[in-house]
Amino acid sequence: MSYFRPAIDELTGYVPGEQPAAGKFIKLNTNENPYPCSSAVARAIEGALRGGLARYPDATATAFRHRAAELHGVEPEWIMCGNGSDELLTILVRAFVGEGQLIRLPHPSYVLYKTLARIQGARGEEVAFNSDWSLPAAFAKGDKNLRLVFLPNPNSPSGTMVTPEAVRELAEQLPCPLVVDEAYADFAESHCAGLPRDCDNVLVTRTLSKSYGLAGLRFGYLIAHPRLIAGLMKVKDSYNCDTLSIAAATAAIDDQQWLAETRRKILDTRARMTDALRKLGFEAVDSQANFVWNTQPEFELPRIYQGLKEQRILVRYMNYPRWGDGLRISVGTDSQIDACLGVIKGLI
Amino acid sequence: MSYFRPAIDELTGYVPGEQPAAGKFIKLNTNENPYPCSSAVARAIEGALRGGLARYPDATATAFRHRAAELHGVEPEWIMCGNGSDELLTILVRAFVGEGQLIRLPHPSYVLYKTLARIQGARGEEVAFNSDWSLPAAFAKGDKNLRLVFLPNPNSPSGTMVTPEAVRELAEQLPCPLVVDEAYADFAESHCAGLPRDCDNVLVTRTLSKSYGLAGLRFGYLIAHPRLIAGLMKVKDSYNCDTLSIAAATAAIDDQQWLAETRRKILDTRARMTDALRKLGFEAVDSQANFVWNTQPEFELPRIYQGLKEQRILVRYMNYPRWGDGLRISVGTDSQIDACLGVIKGLI
Q1: Residue A21 in this model has a pLDDT that exceeds 60
Q2: What three-state secondary structure class fits A107?
Q3: CB B55 within 8 A of CB B250
Q4: Is B278 at the interface with chain A, CB within 8 A?
Q5: How far is CA B317 from the centre of its chain?
Q6: Counting one residue from A and one from B, how many pairs have CB atoms under 8 Å apart?
Q7: Distance CA A110, CA A328 (A)
Q8: Average pLDDT over residues A82-102
Q9: Interchain CB distance below 8 Å, B57 and A86
Q10: Distance between CA atoms of residues B223 and B206, nearest Å
Q11: Separation in Å, CA B153 to CA A125, A137, B140, B150, B205
């Protein structure tokens, strides 16, 4: 006999990208930032440490919300912080979607959305992207059970974007909240951070894991109408962000010069690697994120993935049902990418 | 029109104890440790910081699980870590209890259990303690909808305990998982950390917030049969604990000498303050935790709470429906408790 809800027993847990415990790997598989974070972060952590850890943290990360609000031109009441944006996605599902109700997500995209739907006992309706990675009309269709729509923008694994204009039209058509997951927006040409002011069913999530180089810290935030935030606050654990991560995240978001310089380096490398991968024969998709999605029906991609791994270079091999497979390669430093390209060249 | 699930709209969010943002308060309201944590914690954080924060943390906090397993005489597979034990309580509800099903909890106790039941759309059945803070037979009764039972042990606000023998009997009678919330067990004479080995429906939760002086860090763990942990792992966010908190928590649990010395100081102060409060006329309950619960029908307790607050001393005033009110005073340092007792003396 199982004590678990049937939904949990039926579930295969989400398997995150490999994080090798030891040894020297070039990690191009989980879209981490190859550059060390702003030096302001360590100073902020040391400062917070001097204040001690005996007391509970600020339950709403006030200092961070003020900085983020300035950056996005909203009031702090429009910002909510989370233990990584994954925690915010979890809270959104728990707040909006009941058992048996419907969550819509594009396919292929971040597989966590579907896992979260299943944990909640909800249905996850996957709507396939068009072949040019635009959204079909079905993505905006009403449904009496539809309670939440996820749109990762830029999307993973493709690195492609739906334009802010198209996102606005989608939001206006939908009868429910639309979550625009902007984990990779800092690497893109446009974003929807301003949209929640105009469309009260739009919630934008951001993370400090990728562009700010802080995956180890677990810090994300959400921009939405204060009425929505008030409801979401009832669902979150009281003290979901800790004293050190709040201090560190506040310092990181305050150092926009570091972000601009790091972004520039990553975009330059991305352009170089996209060209090089195409010259090797891949169909590399133009990316607005910090990774590049590569397909090629004539290559044995699992063999290339495995050959790279044997040379201690990790990339992500993905094989999506009803879509096909590809290699998602994170944008590393120039020398990491050169090493990766060199090994691939020997494998094809 | 609301986008939220009805369960969320109907909910008044959990209100944690006051955390004054500024000014010098003597905080005796949220059971934090009055002593700074082990000095090994800062060293561990600085070490982790030198390793950088760009990469995702270890998804299962392996280093901590090994230390905790040694301490409790189990294998690391019996340990699961959380972003504070609050997150683990949340995961337990989501894993075991569906909409409309039943969670049992004693009354009065930690109000979060009932909030978590409501968020999940489940029913929270409160069974009142006997007047001597033992559990009535009704607490062990079967019910076809019963999916989870919470037993905080020691309990808050009373600081009292149900003996390990009684907990074992309870577990054997119950048809569902029993969560023994041992947030305060390090201050008690006994505990149930060994019980999951004998009873496969018992899960024990611990936190580093209280006894280890790390409320600001957000770190808790759970001891249970690996079969249960495997199911709970499907529900948790992939990276729920961050690189710094894992390093810090591992160093903290490794310094058992610090824990023993701090525990001794807190137990001495607890004995002194219990005597003094009784001399002032309170009915102070013998505590096995780091706080003391004080009732006295002849005192105007809200006025005492308010008078203390005006003197910048925070304690917790609680008024439980069908039970009555009281002041829960955390065990501070001797000088903090002397200041608190002095102000109370002038108010009664």
Answers
A1: no
A2: strand
A3: no
A4: no
A5: 18
A6: 220
A7: 13
A8: 98
A9: no
A10: 8
A11: 43, 55, 16, 9, 10
Vertex A256: Cα angle to A250 and A257 (nearest 5): 135
B207-226 residues labelled b (16+ CB within 10 A) or e (exposed)? bbbbbbbbbbbbbbbbbbbe
Q: What SS3 class is residue B272?
A: helix
Residue pair B48/B244 in contact (Cβ under 8 Å)? The answer is: yes
Instruction: Name the β-bridge partners of B80.
Output: B222
Per residue in A218-250, pLDDT (tens digit) is 999 999 999 999 999 999 999 999 999 999 999
| CB-CB contact of A265 with A288 (8 Å) | no
CA B201 to each of CA A199, B161, B171, B195, B307: distance values in angstroms, whole numbers, following the listed order: 47, 20, 7, 9, 46
Binding-face residues of A in 154-193 toward B, CB within 8 A: 176-177
Span B72-103, pLDDT tens digits: 999 999 999 999 999 999 999 999 999 999 99
Distance from CA of B322 to the nearest CA of A (A): 25
Indicate the SS3 state at residue A35.
coil
| Shortest distance, CA B85 to any CA of chain A (angstroms) | 10
The 3-state DSSP class for residue B307 equals: helix
Query: How much is the pLDDT for B17?
Result: 67
Site of tokens 């409790």? B72
**Residue A8 is nearest to which of B86, B119, B235, comparing CB atoms?**
B235
Decide: B31 and B212 in contact? Cβ < 8 Å: no
CB contact under 8 A, A84 and B237: yes
Q: Which domains does chain A have, with CATH numbers?
A: 20-36+257-347 (3.90.1150.10), 39-254 (3.40.640.10)
First vs last C-alpha separation in chain B: 51
Query: Is residue A75 less than 8 Å (CB to CB) from chain B?
Result: no
Assign B119 to helix, strand or coil: helix
Q: How far apart are CA A189 and CA B26, in angstroms?
A: 50
Interface contact B125, partner A, CB < 8 A: no
Joined tokens for residue A28:
């191009």
Query: Quick one: average pLDDT of A61-86?
Result: 98
Compute CA distances B160 → A203, B71, B131, B287, whole Å: 45, 24, 12, 6
User: Given its phi and psi angles, is residue B312 left (phi above 0), alpha (psi -120 to 50 degrees) or beta?
Assistant: left
Contact call for residues B104 and B139 (beta carbons, < 8 A): yes
The model's pLDDT over B41-72, given as tens digits with 9 standing for 90+, comes to 999 999 999 999 999 999 999 999 999 999 99
Taking the Cβ of residue B216 and every Cβ of chain A, the question of whether any pair is shorter than 8 Å is answered with: yes
Share of chain A above pLDDT 70, in %: 97
> Residue A224 in contact with residue A239, Cβ under 8 Å?
no
Question: Cβ of A241 under 8 Å from any chain B Cβ?
Answer: yes
Among residues A172, A183, A162, the alpha carbon closest in space to that of A113 is found at: A183
Pairing mode, strands B316-320 and B324-330? antiparallel
Q: Is the pLDDT of residue A196 over 60?
A: yes
A153 CB within 8 Å of a chain B CB: no
- CA atoms of A253 and A71, how far apart (whole Å): 8
- Residue A17 banded pLDDT, cuts 50, 70, 90: low
Chain A residues in contact with B244 (beta carbon < 8 A): 45, 216-217, 244-245
- Going B27 to B33 to B37 to B41, the CA torsion angle's sign is negative
Query: Checking DSSP bridges between strand B324-330 and strand B291-295, what pairing results, if any?
Result: antiparallel
Q: Which run of H or of E encompasses A320?
A: strand A316-320
**DSSP structure class, residue B274:** H
CA atoms within 13 A on the CB side of B164: 14
CA–CA dist A204, A178 (Å, integer): 8
